[in-house]
Amino acid sequence: MAELTGASPSADAPPRLVARGVGKSFGEARVLEGVSLELRGGSVHAMLGENGAGKSTLMKILAGVERPSTGTLELDGVAYAPLGPVDARRRGVAIVHQELSLCPHLTVAENIVLGVEPRRAGLFSRADAVTRARRALALVEEKSRQISPLALVSGLSAAEQQLVEIARARSADDCRLLILDEPTTSLGHDDAERLFQVLDALRGRGLTILYVSHFLDEIRRIADDFTVLRDGKLVTSGLIADSTNEELVAAMAGEAVQHRAPATRPRGEVILSLQGVAGARLPRDASLELHRGEVLGIAGLMGSGRTELLRAVFGLDRVKRGEIRVAAALGPASPLKRLGQGVGLVSEDRAHEGLALELSIAENLTLSKLSPLGRFGFLSLGREREVVTGFIERLGIRARGPDQRLRELSGGNQQKVALGRLLYHDVDVLLLDEPTRGIDVRSRAELHELFGELAARGKALLVVSSHFDELLTVCDRIAVMHKGVLGAPEPALGRSERQLLKAAAGA
Amino acid sequence: MKSLLRRPWFGPLVALALVYVLFAFLAPDTFTGTVNLSTMARQTAVVAITSLGMTFVILLGGIDLSVGSGVALTGVVVARALQSGMGAWSAALLGLVASTATGVVNGVLTARAKITPFIVTLGTMSVLRGVAKGLAGEQKIDAEPRGLEHLMGAGAATALPAGVWLAVVLAVVAALVLEITVFGRHVVAIGSNSSTARLCGVPVERVTIAVYALAAALTGVAGVLEFSTLTVGDPTDSLGLELEAIAAVVIGGGSLAGGQGSIAGAMIGALLMTVIKTGCTHVGVPNWVQEISTGVIIVVAVGIDRLRRR
User: Fold this and answer.
1) CA angle B31, B35, B36 (to 5 degrees)
2) pTM of the prediction?
3) Which terminus of chain A is less hemmed in, N or C, by CB atoms within 10 Å?
4) Chain A environment of B185 (Cβ under 8 Å)
């Protein structure tokens, strides 16, 4: 029950925030629909949901970053329609974003008073700033480990920076609602516990905290109430103490998806093997064996270290511990070497890392291996056209021709170009990070078919996705990643989305 | 003492001292004389004042390439005003106002039209140079300086002219503005993380415009001093001065990514370049060697700074 935590709110306290029928559309796409909820004063309210469920949109609306298309908000009984983030802050709603957002070149005190600087005779008063910062910091941490207001933010740890952010948010005039967006993603276990103690204390002082996270163990530790969103709609809400993890997961995942068992393919020899791989921060421990002719899925939530794992394998991030073996080659290697060994990566960030959007299809597709296209450093553009036209046909890329700029293509077609680059390079191991993110249903189905085709031709695919139904559709085996630790891969056949989500959320 | 060592301008200060001692040793008769010290101070004044403004711009995460053209334009405006019979003070003020106006244009285009400052000021660099040439009829303008020449010249060869003192005072004021005003704090905050600054209610656009205007006003002051030195309005003067100002800021620990830089550092940077130039002349090292060593120092200074930060 709610009384388990010492500073629990009384059930009959008036609501801090009331949302009635809040919806948001971007053009045709409805990302939030008819969400009504109440946040009690002096409570921690958990917002749960899978990626794309609408959590961040709702948060942005509350913090004044976005305006709702429909519905109304009320804060302590007064209509609340912030004009922007600054206005929201002034009215007592502050947000701490997932990526820390402080000014690294300023001191702790300067960051805390930024935008509301104390002045004396028109000048910045350092003494007042320090006093105010001390007071703000004292609210978010125990005396023994106080952060110096005069320290430069660039020298603080991630956990300390987060406390400074909370102190800044909290120090806003009359802060009544504090929104935390997945606050533990950059924290270790001890730091997370320290954060929870801070949140406990803030709740005890009557602050309402909206806590967004996918991790059920954290939610159970810190939250009083919960709301689950799915596909932009509110699914259920209630008291954490009254609901089991099973129920929460079921609400997040929705109906059990009909997972199409992939046709059993003959499995070849092991081509990529990881033994206890750990990076600088993430992953912490990952072992697996990937065979030729296999599609192996990695199911993990955002921040679980799944992207970092692929980056470490491909040589983009440093490997701190463990062993990576590609066919006969042992040890870490640069991306150039990995490509030479027949390993390719498709980045989750198409726009910034994966592709050069201003360049043509041909330039993007052939970038990693130009040598067959020319002699003495000169390119045979005719030969390039020929090769690229072949790939456009084979992959069903809908474009005017090899010279069309990537920016003009749809996300699905862009992704086909990214995959085409690996195929043109003729790699044996494809590392695919969220390969169907932001792609329409038709292209997604086409890509899924392509994955199967590639595996049948003896390629090995390692697919990271937060869409677990996708993994169940395309993978032979699936391993779950939770907080940097990769579980053992198990056959996809017979597993359910619900099971995967439960393991990924640490429930 | 420890905090002194950690200041970003400490390294450049040591370099300045070393270079000074080196030349004092190589040319003991001429280099350390008061006449030479006075000359070096005069030669540094114009670059120093423009690098004050550049420090603000670079702290903000911007750049101002129009400085050299701005100095030339100010000189021409002052000369034209004097020619038309204006008094010394009014002519100087007119030059200052003209220059500041160009800064407002730079700031508005950067902050409101959201054009990258490199492009904006690359454009105004060319525009201002053109305006200066047009205004001067493509030749130097001779004008009776009516006392403005005293700002930088005349008097005893060993004494420091008013212009140099003005540079010192402006440097102190600029450093105080950065240290103890809310405006200064906002400049650093925007350069450090502009989206956070905006989120915290810092008036990003207004501060940006103010910084470019302030930089251009300082360019105007430098332009008046330059006229005082030359006593003619020369539209082709101060070509590439902006690069010297940027170099001074960067040698002094400024980062073109914004958020980092100091007035003390920029002053040390400006002095370092003068000492190398003058010293090399005294020792008889040819011009091309001076240019190479200045270039090497810029890159080495920034390289050491990066290493220190690892």
Assistant:
1) 35
2) 0.79
3) N
4) 106, 110, 114, 117, 124
